[in-house]
């Protein structure tokens, strides 16, 4: 690697370098302790220095210096990890520089020319690198050490590196932490003790910041059941954010593809940078806080004051700018924030340059005044340009539209334009009962709030807004406020007519999702009048079907029907659709998929909060998994499934304002309210009964809904035995006791627990696969565990360095356990070459192809773990007969015949079409699936008599395969002689059989003349007629088959059994544990980018 020329004084080198080559202008040196004659005390000291000091000139084993005659000053211009690399640089200097230097008169001119040339080479290298680092020179040096120490594939992208201490036991090791796209690496070398650690991000179970008595603050990593601690980090928070981002990126890309969204900064694993990861982390926080679409990225942040008209003072905060939104959040504890869509901005004014202020005018004759903005001129120009781009004709007419129903103009007549509650329970204006009066008072409070804080998309969100939410939202405003708080109003405004198009496109489609939707339609709030009529059922069907069509990865999941039915009660149909989008894709990520990962993660977060806030309950119930199972429905349905509908909607109000934090707070309040009863219960069933009775007793005393609309409680008969609880009081108590839980802490806990949840699911899959496979193989459980890890790692290796790897499609968590991870041929070939028992086999690639074709039973071009293990089990622990039978079958279709590839491709196409039917939008052919399953169960054990005969071409190839397998073995010569002897013996037997058949006429060829009964029997066993050979093996033409011969497996087996050398070779035990260990070490190094 060429280095930026740096001056070095050899007087101060302490003899740490040995000169290998030199000439008039250049010196090639080797570091003491490396290469020939290295080691000793000098080597230990040099190695320690190389690890602790941060300079490649002190680390690389080889370097080239430039000097001029009679000068004590030397310039380092190149370094290398290997001798071959440095020799290439040396040869280049000899061929391209040395001749030119002779024309210069002065030493200064020589040095200037060399330095300029080297800088030019570095600049050319920099042009080929698409990613610019903050300090390219220093980063290049670090990358050199990274490649030298860890020997990872050259495609692996180093993201950043830090100096830190790694705690191995109770002793800290000072070294360097390297964070790359796919691996966490650490290296330390102190006085001969080398510590090297390489952990892939997909192996992490825990990643968290911790502190204890010894370590004030450190980063804890759990992988492979081992704890790793990294401390003494200068920028610990920055390091942790990068690690968290890399782990999350790896988990999403490799395990949780349903939620994986391509980010501009993360689109290519070869181009991920520290800067990109930090920007992505900030954008995630920005989108989560302001409830913005996933397409929005944080572009600029400006510190400023915002004039708050209702409080008559300036509040300090930050302006956050994205592609389509201008947002502000206070930092002085006032909990004030505002979201302004660029489409609502009509003008930007700069009234006073002295105060560095600007005024943003929005529709509805409102303005926001920002002051003390450092770069206010550029900010004003940016907002103007973005408004000009984002403004569109369809939005200009909605300036005074405070009901926020943008997009309804294009609605189809088939789409309901009224909330179901207004249809089935219209409010009686003249009704003056106490509940209706209280409802009117709530509406009045909100109208006052709107007059002070604004109404619509640019409304101020303050502490007072939350107080009004906690007290309960009036029925008439619920739909509008849900749209506003969730951000769904912005989605609908920017996608006019989208829902109507979806409804039309999805109309009449028949998929697995639509079948499930039809089944659950009448289970959605069946006691509510709205869903006892076709109006409500049809609206529910349209919304769920349209969403399944929009997002086929989620499709339809149970609990979506319950949530959507409540949304339809208070929002118009199109609004309910966009609310569902906001919930499924932003507010409750990964909830509504096949593995409900998001709900499991939030349950883990809930358990952490129970430990932190309810220690008495934890002391009594050490196993908190009970609360996870009980609370699953709380999270999936936002308490709608356990609370009466008139109470549940109050919970939904809080959820749309505060997100999952509101559900967690309420869950803690429920457990706290029932603390004494839960502590005194004796088993889980009793605890479930206590909680069910409590939920049945929850009421909403302020609800204006009539009894016909209110949900009947399951435990009404026992209601008198339990004191009723008002939902508003319960929610208020939840905010008072647990309102200090911060949304940022919840999001951090989500990321931390997501690693553990996904790895737990993966571990469950592994245990189930091992349990199934162990019944058919002779490997031990620990060996199967290691084999599974190798198999899974091989799958990931083909995904690490490319975004569009077809191998990513081979992992589908929704399939049966055995089918979740599968290997294509390239992946299988690399893994098989590491594990096959014949270490010196010279035709590994060809043999791998034949084995792959043979064990790919369904011929779909993929191998599952069971197929892989059964093949290895035969080759490792099978009898001589079974091993020979396996090799024999390799040379029969579908093993080595070229023409069979066409058949395999056709079969793959059929399987692909079947898999599309099973997983896509087509219906599942259950009859075909069950028939295939029945055939597998009834499949009988194959005997050697069932094997077809091997023809001439196949037998020759079989013999070659044996020669190649024996190549390099210590008994190679005797094995070759044995194969030659068997081959000649079989050929002589065939020749005898052929001569005995020659005198007979063609019609009587099956009964040779002049033979005894015994000879006749022997001949029939040793040879077949051309027709039978042709039918059983290669299907060649009759004329060709008359000149060919063939052998049965019994003949080959009998002949080889007479050769002790061959028998002992195949019966030689294989050290399986050693093989697995070697494969684990070599797997990463054997990776090739194909």
UniProtKB/TrEMBL annotation:
<feature type="compositionally biased region" description="Low complexity">
    <location>
        <begin position="1011"/>
        <end position="1034"/>
    </location>
</feature>
<comment type="subunit">
    <text>Interacts (via domain Rab-GAP TBC) with RAB11B (in GTP-bound form).</text>
</comment>
<dbReference type="InterPro" id="IPR004182">
    <property type="entry name" value="GRAM"/>
</dbReference>
<dbReference type="InterPro" id="IPR035969">
    <property type="entry name" value="Rab-GAP_TBC_sf"/>
</dbReference>
<dbReference type="InterPro" id="IPR011992">
    <property type="entry name" value="EF-hand-dom_pair"/>
</dbReference>
<dbReference type="InterPro" id="IPR018247">
    <property type="entry name" value="EF_Hand_1_Ca_BS"/>
</dbReference>
<feature type="domain" description="EF-hand">
    <location>
        <begin position="851"/>
        <end position="878"/>
    </location>
</feature>
<dbReference type="GO" id="GO:0005829">
    <property type="term" value="C:cytosol"/>
</dbReference>
<keyword id="KW-0677">Repeat</keyword>
<keyword id="KW-0963">Cytoplasm</keyword>
<dbReference type="InterPro" id="IPR002048">
    <property type="entry name" value="EF_hand_dom"/>
</dbReference>
<keyword id="KW-0106">Calcium</keyword>
<dbReference type="Pfam" id="PF00566">
    <property type="entry name" value="RabGAP-TBC"/>
</dbReference>
<dbReference type="GO" id="GO:0003094">
    <property type="term" value="P:glomerular filtration"/>
</dbReference>
<feature type="region of interest" description="Disordered">
    <location>
        <begin position="993"/>
        <end position="1039"/>
    </location>
</feature>
<keyword id="KW-0343">GTPase activation</keyword>
<dbReference type="Pfam" id="PF02893">
    <property type="entry name" value="GRAM"/>
</dbReference>
<keyword id="KW-0479">Metal-binding</keyword>
<protein>
    <recommendedName>
        <fullName>TBC1 domain family member 8B</fullName>
    </recommendedName>
</protein>
<dbReference type="InterPro" id="IPR000195">
    <property type="entry name" value="Rab-GAP-TBC_dom"/>
</dbReference>
<comment type="function">
    <text>Involved in vesicular recycling, probably as a RAB11B GTPase-activating protein.</text>
</comment>
<dbReference type="GO" id="GO:0005509">
    <property type="term" value="F:calcium ion binding"/>
</dbReference>
<feature type="domain" description="Rab-GAP TBC">
    <location>
        <begin position="472"/>
        <end position="659"/>
    </location>
</feature>
<dbReference type="InterPro" id="IPR011993">
    <property type="entry name" value="PH-like_dom_sf"/>
</dbReference>
<dbReference type="GO" id="GO:0005096">
    <property type="term" value="F:GTPase activator activity"/>
</dbReference>
């Amino acid at each position: 690697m060429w280095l930026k020329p740096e001056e070095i004084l050899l007087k101060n080198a302490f003899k740490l370098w040995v000169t290998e080559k030199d000439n008039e202008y250049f010196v090639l040196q080797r570091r003491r302790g490396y290469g020939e004659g290295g080691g000793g005390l000098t080597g230990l000291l040099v190695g320690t220095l190389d690890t602790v000091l941060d300079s490649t000139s002190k680390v690389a084993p080889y370097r080239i210096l430039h000097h001029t005659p009679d000068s004590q000053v030397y310039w380092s211009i190149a370094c290398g990890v290997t001798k071959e690399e440095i020799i290439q640089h040396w040869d280049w200097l000899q061929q391209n520089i040395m001749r030119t230097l002779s024309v210069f008169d002065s030493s200064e001119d020589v040095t200037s020319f060399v330095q300029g040339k080297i800088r030019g080479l570095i600049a050319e290298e920099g042009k080929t690198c698409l990613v610019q680092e903050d300090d390219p020179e220093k980063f290049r040096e670090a990358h050199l050490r990274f490649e030298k120490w860890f020997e990872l594939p050259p495609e692996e992208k180093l993201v950043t590196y830090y100096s830190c201490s790694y705690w191995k036991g109770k002793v800290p090791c000072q070294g360097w932490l390297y964070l790359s796209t796919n691996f966490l690496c650490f290296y330390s070398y102190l006085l001969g003790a080398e510590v090297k650690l390489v952990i892939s991000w997909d192996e992490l179970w825990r990643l968290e910041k911790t502190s204890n008595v010894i370590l004030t603050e450190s980063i804890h990593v759990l992988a492979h059941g081992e704890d790793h601690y990294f401390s003494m980090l200068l920028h610990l928070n920055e390091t942790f954010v990068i690690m968290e981002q890399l782990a999350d990126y790896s988990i999403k890309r490799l395990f949780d593809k349903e939620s994986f969204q391509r980010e501009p900064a993360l689109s290519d694993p070869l181009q991920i940078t520290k800067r990109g990861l930090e920007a992505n982390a900030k954008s995630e926080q920005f989108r989560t806080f302001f409830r913005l679409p996933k397409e929005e990225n944080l572009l600029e942040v400006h510190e400023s004051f915002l004039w708050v008209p209702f409080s008559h003072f300036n509040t300090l905060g930050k302006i956050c700018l994205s592609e389509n939104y201008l947002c502000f959040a206070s930092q002085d504890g006032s909990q004030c924030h505002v979201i302004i869509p660029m489409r609502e901005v009509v003008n930007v004014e700069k009234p006073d340059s002295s105060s560095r202020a600007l005024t943003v005018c929005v529709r509805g004759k409102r303005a926001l005044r920002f002051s003390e903005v450092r770069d206010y001129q550029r900010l004003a120009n940016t907002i103007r340009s973005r408004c000009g781009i984002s403004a569109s004709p369809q939005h200009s007419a909605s300036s005074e539209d405070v009901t926020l129903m943008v997009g309804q103009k294009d609605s189809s007549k088939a789409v309901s334009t009224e909330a179901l509650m207004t249809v089935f329970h219209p409010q009686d204006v003249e009704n003056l009962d106490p509940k209706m009066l209280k409802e009117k008072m709530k509406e009045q409070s909100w109208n006052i709030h709107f007059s002070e804080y604004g109404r619509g998309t640019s409304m101020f969100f303050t502490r007072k807004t939350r107080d009004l939410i906690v007290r309960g939202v009036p029925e008439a405003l619920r739909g509008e406020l849900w749209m506003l708080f969730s951000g769904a109003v912005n989605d609908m405004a920017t996608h006019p007519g989208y829902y109507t198009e979806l409804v039309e496109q999805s109309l009449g489609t028949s998929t697995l999702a639509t079948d499930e939707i039809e089944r659950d339609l009448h289970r959605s709030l069946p006691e509510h009048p709205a869903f006892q009529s076709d109006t409500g059922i049809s609206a529910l069907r349209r919304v769920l079907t349209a969403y399944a069509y929009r997002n086929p990865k989620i499709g339809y999941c149970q609990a979506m029907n319950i949530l959507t039915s409540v949304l339809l009660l208070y929002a118009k149909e199109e609004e309910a659709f966009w609310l569902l989008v906001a919930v499924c894709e932003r507010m409750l990520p990964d909830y509504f998929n096949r593995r409900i990962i998001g709900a499991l993660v939030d349950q883990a977060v809930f358990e952490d909060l129970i430990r932190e806030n309810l220690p008495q309950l934890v002391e009594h119930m050490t196993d908190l998994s009970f609360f996870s199972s009980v609370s699953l429905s709380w999270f999936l349905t936002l308490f709608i499934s356990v609370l009466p509908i008139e109470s549940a909607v109050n919970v939904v109000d809080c959820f749309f304002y505060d997100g999952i934090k509101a559900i967690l707070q309420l869950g803690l309040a429920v457990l706290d309210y029932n603390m004494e009863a839960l502590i005194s219960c004796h088993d889980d069933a009793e605890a479930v009964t206590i909680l069910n009775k409590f939920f049945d007793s929850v009421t909403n005393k302020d609800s204006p809904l009539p009894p016909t609309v209110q949900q009947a409680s399951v435990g009404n008969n026992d209601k008198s035995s339990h004191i009723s609880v008002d939902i508003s009081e319960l929610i208020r108590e939840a905010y008072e006791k647990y309102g200090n839980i911060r949304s940022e802490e919840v999001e951090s806990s989500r990321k931390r627990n997501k690693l553990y949840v996904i790895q737990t699911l993966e571990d469950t899959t592994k245990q189930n696969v091992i349990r199934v496979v162990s019944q058919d193989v002779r490997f031990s459980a620990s060996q199967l565990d290691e084999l599974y890890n190798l198999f899974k790692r091989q799958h990931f290796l083909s995904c690490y360095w490319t975004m569009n790897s077809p191998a990513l499609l081979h992992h589908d968590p929704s399939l049966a356990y055995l089918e979740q991870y599968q290997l294509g041929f390239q992946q299988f070939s690399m893994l098989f070459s590491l594990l096959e028992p014949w270490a010196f086999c010279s035709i590994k690639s060809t043999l791998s192809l034949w084995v792959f074709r043979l064990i790919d039973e369904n011929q779909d071009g993929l191998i599952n773990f069971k197929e892989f293990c059964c093949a290895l089990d035969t080759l490792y622990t099978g009898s001589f007969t079974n091993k020979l039978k396996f090799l024999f079958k390799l040379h029969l279709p579908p093993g080595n015949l070229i023409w069979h590839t066409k058949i395999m491709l056709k079969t793959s196409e059929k399987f692909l079409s079947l898999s599309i039917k099973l997983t896509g939008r087509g219906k599942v052919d259950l009859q075909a699936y069950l028939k295939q399953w029945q055939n597998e169960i009834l499949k009988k054990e194959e005997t050697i008599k069932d094997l077809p005969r091997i023809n001439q071409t196949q037998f020759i190839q079989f013999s070659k395969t044996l020669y190649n397998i024996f190549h390099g073995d210590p008994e190679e010569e005797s094995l070759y002689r044995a194969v030659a002897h068997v081959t000649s013996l079989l050929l002589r037997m065939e020749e005898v059989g052929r001569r005995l058949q020659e005198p007979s006429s063609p019609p009587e060829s099956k009964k040779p003349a002049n033979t005894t009964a015994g000879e006749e029997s022997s001949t029939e066993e040793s040879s077949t007629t051309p027709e039978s050979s042709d039918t059983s093996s290669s299907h060649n033409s009759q004329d060709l088959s008359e000149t060919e011969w063939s052998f049965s497996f019994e003949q080959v087996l009998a002949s080889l059994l007479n050769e002790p050398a061959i028998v002992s070779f195949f019966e030689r035990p294989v050290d399986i544990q050693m093989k697995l260990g070697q494969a684990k070490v070599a797997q990463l190094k054997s990776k090739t980018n194909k």
